[in-house]
Amino acid sequence: MSQSMLEDIASPQIYTHPAELHERYARLRQSAPVSWCEHPAYRPFWALVGHKDISEVSKQNDLFLNAPRLTLVPKAIEDYLASTGRGRDGSVRTIIDMDEPDHRDYRKVTQSWFLGQGVAQFESRVQAMAKRSVSRMAELGSDCDFAVDIANWFPLYVIMGILGLPEEDAPFILRCTQAMLAASDPELQRDQQAFGTAEFEQLFAYLGTIVEKRRREPTDDLGSVIANGLVKGQAMGMLETLSYLMLTSTAGHETTSSAISGGLLALIENPAADQATRQNPSLWETGADEIVRWVSPVRHFMRTAARDCHVGGQAIKAGDSLALFYLSANRDETVFENPFEFNPARTPNRHLGFGLGGHFCLGRLLALTEIRTLMREVQSRVASIELAGDPQWTQSNFVGAIKRMPVHYKMA
Ligand code: HEM
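That is the input. Now the predicted structure with protoporphyrin IX containing FE docked in place:
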């Protein structure tokens, strides 16, 4: 019984049926929070669904490594990528792929930008882009697909501005990101066999031209910080530089878009929360984090044990991999009061939507700023909003939430 539930929570298909998914997660949290999963499509792995175990693993970066298995990729695809030399170990090296000491050195290249003046300097641009997004809703009249027409674009324009990429390239970046991150959704993936490799190569070639430009003429954007980044006094290698840009230009928007669509759906489904935040917009100070807990746009990341050890009473062997299901941890009834209630005033909110430990999301401040700015802007200019059709969820056990959300609304 529990083996079939484990198979279910790893299968991309169930992510299009959130209620069923959460029912499986809840039963596993009760009966088998750390269990060995032998799934027909994936190499075996430990599935972790509880907040405590996931937190403990995430904080021990020397024992639980990010390399070599970062996400659940079907065996067939792993074999195909390895046979063409395009696996993660050869063709990409982002800071999420790295372990210590490299990870710390490379993370430092952008850390002060993300946690210091960088995001703060950008706040007025975020505000302007949020205004533009809601103006787009007004232009579209009283109906739109909020996921496709609004949420997909706002974080993308923000991150492109931050990286210094021309706005007209936004459709290209969006296509590449969706093909790479939501590779298991047949609609977003044009070539199932290739698992986004064509888009990956196109994106790398494109980012290569940006690196050259920023090295020739540095500016004050994040693209320049990365292109000219030094590690131990030396310029970063081309693989690491392109991977860095690739990570920020993809992870930085698909996640935030998912949070924004999922957040609006939460408001539509919870009129009391909508009312409360409309009356008191300062609730978004905590509400943005509640959206990330509620939606958990990154459903899992993986770690590999460096040594034999125990997690949640289970004996883990060196080399075993562990999938950390953040979406389940964020509904853990032993940590959150009424975890199935969307509560913008929730404090404390120790959700794991941004991970934990050494790899804790660098874009957290930026993402929270974007979410609360857009929510406030929508609520101040849209008098009422309702669903005009059923929302559709991305078929992915990794990143992504709602891919379609038809809405009907009245501008104020
Ligand atoms: C709601 C939006 C977002 C969510 C849910 C999210 C989630 C995550 C998660 C779960 C991790 C891995 C943490 C871990 O392993 O402990 C991560 C890492 C990361 N995120 Fe985000 N993220 C979001 C937005 C952003 C944005 C806007 C950016 C920047 C442009 C960004 C950049 C990064 C980077 C660079 C890392 C790697 C950090 C490292 O390995 O040291 N993220 N994010």
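The first helix runs from residue 2 to 10.
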